[in-house]
Amino acid sequence: MNLRGAIAQNLTGKTPNDLSAVIQDAISGGEEKTLPGLGVMLEMFWKKSTTEEQKVVLERMASALK
């Protein structure tokens, strides 16, 4: 199994609270090794999102990066 698959498998079935903890830990730890996990989370979300949901996320990201 590749890294993406392993990360996806570890994230599958997590509750919203679990996912929040993963995100908060990655942010507070500031370690680059957590970046692939966040990327896979975004990819999984993106693939199941509507165009409108994607647009909202992109607008918020663009605003946060100003």
Task: Please describe the structure with a list of short key phrases separated by commas or semicolons.
66 residues, mainly alpha, 4 helices, 76% helix, SspI
Mean pLDDT value: 95
Total individual domains:
1
How many β-strand runs? Answer: 0
Report the biggest beta sheet as strand number plus sense, adding barrel if it closes: none
Helix content: over 70%
User: Structural class of the helices, strands and pairings?
Assistant: mainly alpha
- End-to-end distance, in Å? 38 Å
Backbone CA Rg: 13 Å
Number of helices: 4
Element order, helices and strands?
HHHH
- Quote the beta fraction: under 5%
Spans where pLDDT lies below 50 across 5 or more residues: none
GO biological process, one term: sporulation resulting in formation of a cellular spore
Protein name: Small acid-soluble spore protein I (Minor)
InterPro entries: SspI
Keywords: Sporulation
Q: How is the secondary structure organized here?
A:
Blueprint (H helix, E strand, L loop, with lengths): L2 H9 L4 H14 L5 H13 L3 H14 L2
Describe the protein's architecture and organization:
- With about 70 residues, the protein is mainly alpha-helical.
- The protein has one domain.
- About 75% of the residues lie in helices and about 0% in strands.
- The chain contains four helices and no strands.
- The model has no long low-confidence stretch (mean pLDDT about 95).
